[in-house]
Amino acid sequence: MAQKILLDMIKLRSVMAKDPATTIPEGYIPPSLNTDGMKTIRELAVFRFTCRKCEDAPCIGVCPADALEKDRDGIINRHTNLCISCKSCVTICPFGTMMTDFFKHHRNKDLFHNLDDKEELELFVRSCPPGVVSVVESEESPAENIYKLNDKVLVRDYLYTT
Ligand code: SF4
Ligand code: SF4
């Protein structure tokens, strides 16, 4: 039976309820199109720690896809659903902050395709709160509130029916 990931939305909500400061982890299956999709932990670390946080950030200005913006803490965030992987930001950054391998996650890449890659899959699981995402070899199980999102993803949640 093919491996799938199981995203436990019930557990995720309980983690977030206990700790309101919990941020939605990168690598989380986006609940809407306007999310960041999957990134490497290194990308997050580099923008948080290495980036000089330029006041008039040239990386933001040069991006043709408006994919970069600063969050409330002034940390650069790359929206992978907008990024076209042109790497203009890498070239213009005066401090060489970014590495080109960050940009393998971008809007032209199928998010789920990355889950075929063992390394990416481990990264995905690690980047979520413990127990929220697991790798399973099972099928949809409504009795356990587990439903099929697509061929590679199962979601555990309460089904709202009209
Ligand atoms: S690589 Fe992505 S984030 Fe960087 S400039 Fe190009 S579109 Fe913008
Ligand atoms: S140009 Fe480079 S150092 Fe400046 S904000 Fe952008 S990534 Fe950070």
Q: Say what the CATH topology of the largest domain is.
A: Alpha-Beta Plaits
SSE topology string: EHHHEEHHEEE
Helix fraction by DSSP (H/I, runs of at least 4): 10-25%
Per CATH, the architecture of the largest domain is 2-Layer Sandwich
> How many domains, in number, for the residues?
2
Please outline the major beta sheet: 4 strands, mixed
Report strand %: 5-15%
Given this structure, which CATH class of the largest domain is correct? Alpha Beta
Cross-sheet strand order for the largest sheet: 4-1-6-5
Any idea what the shape is?
elongated
Low-confidence stretches: 25-36
Mean pLDDT: 77
Can you describe what's shown?
By secondary structure, the protein is of the alpha+beta class. 24% of the residues lie in helices and 15% in strands. The chain has five helices and six strands. Strands 4-1-6-5 form a four-stranded mixed sheet. A hairpin with a 5-residue loop joins strand 2 and strand 3 (76-78). The two termini are 33 Å apart. The relative contact order is 0.25. The model is unreliable at 25-36 (pLDDT under 50). One iron/sulfur cluster (SF4) is lined by residues 51-54, 57-59, 76, 93, 95, 97-98.
